[in-house]
Amino acid sequence: MIEFIFLFGIGFAWILYAAVSDIRTREIPNWLNFSLILFALSFRFFYSLFNLGDFSFFYQGLIGLLIFFILGKILYYGRMFAGGDEKLMIALGAVLPVFSNFSDNLRVFLIFFLLFFFVGAVYGIFGSLFISVKNKGLFKKGFKKLFRENKRFVALSIVLGITSLIMGFFLFPFFYLGLFLFIFPYFYLFIKSVDEFCMVKEVPISTVTPGDWLYRDVKVGNKTVRATWDGLSEEDIKLLRKKRKIKIRFGLVFAPVFLISFALLGLFLKYDLIDKILYGLF
Question: What torsion do the CA atoms of 257, 259, 265, 266 make, to the nearest 10 degrees?
Answer without folding.
Answer: -170
